[in-house]
Write a structure and sequence with these properties.
ten-stranded mixed sheet; 17 strands; Pseudouridine synthase; alpha+beta; Archaeosine Trna-guanine Transglycosylase, Chain: A, domain 4; about 25% strand; about 425 residues; seven-stranded mixed sheet
Amino acid sequence: MGKSHKEKKKKESVEESKTQQEGFVVQSEDTTPKLDTSNWPLLLKNVHLMNVRDCHFEPSERGYSPLNRPLDEHIKHGVINLDKPSNPSSHEVVAWVKRALKVEKTGHSGTLDPKVTGCLIVCIDRSTRLVKSQQNAGKVYIAIFRLHECVPSIKRVQQVCEILKGALFQRPPAVSAVKRQLRIRTIFRSDLLEYDPSKRLGVIRLDCEAGTYVRTYCVHIGLMLGCGGVMEELRRIRSGILTEEDNMVTMHDVLDAKWVHENYNSEDYLRRVIMPLEKLLIGHKRIMVKDSTVSALCYGAKLMLPGILRYDNNINKDDEIVLISTKGEAIALAISNVVTAAIATCDHGPVAKLKRVIMDRDLYPRQWGLGPVAARRKLERAMQNQKGDKNEVEEKEDAIKKKLNVDEEDRGVSPPKKRPRQASTSSSSSSDSSD
């Protein structure tokens, strides 16, 4: 009997782990679940390596796994890694995508000049809330520059590229539609990939801060070499965390995917073109919260310690982190108030302050204000309001009486004196008898 009971328990645990593995959902467990999550998608990857604070929570049926959202929700919470063509501006390309997909809002991760090609992240509807964070993310460019005179020494050009690193002063070029104001931009890495002295052409790879003008950088290379230089071509190969190899698509792909869906009712092509917004947040540190906490966070509440299920290592104070649900949905971007060690040792207190809420309100049910403490506070407030209402009524009556007395005094009329009730009754009876 004992063996059969143990075998039955083993089978049940294996079945539970299978359902978790297939559905990409973290379930409530008595102990830490032994799951291999190295192949799980997006923000749920390597969940088993996160520190566990609490395993007990009540799972909610609301919400969707990022890869299993209905198509309408998938588009609303989607991003496109678009290969921007040459000649049209970034705003024109974004407007074309908006018109092609028939959505309400679109935004992009950073403006590219009309002649520049490459990685342009287009955010749709709800994912436009991530536009600001993506615009401030680092960028990587491949640029071709031409020198005005021949410089035969490749080493000299390499030395100049090494010197032009770190914080540099830049003024936007004359062709730019920005105020020409001196600013500081940081160059993290500058590599000379190729150089042809006969054609006076060179190719550089530039890893830089957002807002860097590569055209100005090429002019500075020419100034440092003493011969002058100009940028010939430019392509962005990385924006934030997405590169050319991360499902980059063209405008033709977007139009074809929409046409296939409308004419053949097939979602596959459209789902390949549009990625979930969680793809942009893979590089952030994560904190997984209980399903009962999600709705309060969507209304702007601070994250408190009792609402945490799991958290990543090496979280420092003032770090930008992402709060995720047990299904792997991005709830909000937040600024950490504590370090990882404090989350592990403390019992109560605020953990993070919200920076930008991503998820829609009321997607998860409201769970705040249902405990005994909240009920007691509600009762106290109701009693105070009743007392306050009585006091307000009395104050209003006194104010009206005073106003009437003041008006009558101004007109020279003495305020009427109250007669006793007996006198009034006797006078009325005498008048009745005389009649």
